[in-house]
C-alpha cells in the first residue's frame, strides 16, 4: 500500500455525520504514517483506536508523492499547490458520490500534510 496515491476510505461508521481526512507528511504514506511502530496498529482503522471514539465518522486517508531525493534518488515532481488541487478534486468527487457535500470535514495532518491542507483552505476550494 506504500505507493497508494489519492483518497482511500479506511473506516465507515454507520450513518456517518463527519468525514475525517488524514494527510501524511514528508516521506510518509497514507497507511505507514498512521501505523504504530511498536504494535503495528493502523490507528485510523483499528476498531480499538480512532473508530472506537468516532463511530459516526467516515475516515479517509490521502496519499501523495512526498519522497525526498536524499533517500530515494528522486523528488516529488508535484508542488504543494498541485497536491492541494488533487486533494480537493478527489474529496469533491468522493463526497459527491457519497451525497455528502455538506458533511463537515476534520483534517488530521502530519508535517507537510498540514501545509498541503493549509493551501487547500487558503484556496477556499472546499466548503
Q: What share of the residues does DSSP label as strand, in percent?
A: 15-25%
Trace the largest sheet across and list its strands: 1-3-2-4
What's the total number of strands?
A: 4
Q: Shape, please?
A: globular
Radius of gyration: 14 Å
Q: In which range does the helix fraction lie?
A: 25-40%
**What's the oligomerization state?**
single chain
Q: Compute the separation of the termini in Å.
A: 30 Å
Largest sheet: 4 strands, mixed
Compute the number of helices. Answer: 4
Question: Pairing-aware structural class of the strands and helices?
Answer: alpha/beta
Poorly predicted parts: none
The SSE string, one letter per element, is EEHEHHEH
Chain-averaged pLDDT: 87
Short description:
With 127 residues, the chain is α/β, with parallel strands linked by helices. Helices cover 31% and strands 20% of the residues.
What topology emerges from the helices and strands here?
Blueprint: E1 6-12, E2 18-23, H1 50-53, E3 57-63, H2 69-72, H3 80-98, E4 105-109, H4 112-123
Parallel strand pairs: 2-3, 2-4
Antiparallel strand pairs: 1-3
Helix pairs in contact: 3-4
Describe the protein.
This protein is of the alpha/beta class. The chain contains four helices and four strands. The protein has helices at 50-53, 69-72, 80-98, 112-123; strands at 6-12, 18-23, 57-63, 105-109. A four-stranded mixed beta sheet has the order 1-3-2-4, covered by helices on one side. Strand 2, helix 1 (50-53) and strand 3 form a beta-alpha-beta unit. The longest helix is centred in the last third of the chain and has 19 residues, at 80-98. The radius of gyration is 14 Å and the shape is globular. The termini are far apart. 27% of the residues are buried. The mean pLDDT is 87.
Amino acid at each position: 500500500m506504500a505507493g497508494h496515491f489519492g483518497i482511500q476510505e479506511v473506516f465507515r461508521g454507520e450513518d456517518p455525520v463527519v468525514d475525517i481526512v488524514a494527510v501524511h507528511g514528508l516521506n510518509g504514506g497514507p497507511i505507514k504514517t498512521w501505523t504504530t511502530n511498536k504494535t503495528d496498529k493502523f490507528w485510523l482503522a483499528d476498531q480499538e483506536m480512532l473508530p472506537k471514539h468516532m463511530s459516526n465518522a467516515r475516515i479517509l486517508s490521502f496519499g501523495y508523492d512526498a519522497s525526498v531525493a536524499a533517500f530515494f534518488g528522486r523528488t516529488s515532481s508535484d508542488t504543494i499547490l498541485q497536491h492541494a488541487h488533487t486533494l480537493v478534486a478527489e474529496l469533491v468527487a468522493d463526497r459527491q458520490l457519497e451525497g455528502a457535500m455538506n458533511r463537515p470535514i476534520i483534517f488530521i495532518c502530519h508535517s507537510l500534510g498540514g501545509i498541503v491542507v493549509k493551501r487547500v483552505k487558503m484556496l477556499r476550494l472546499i466548503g
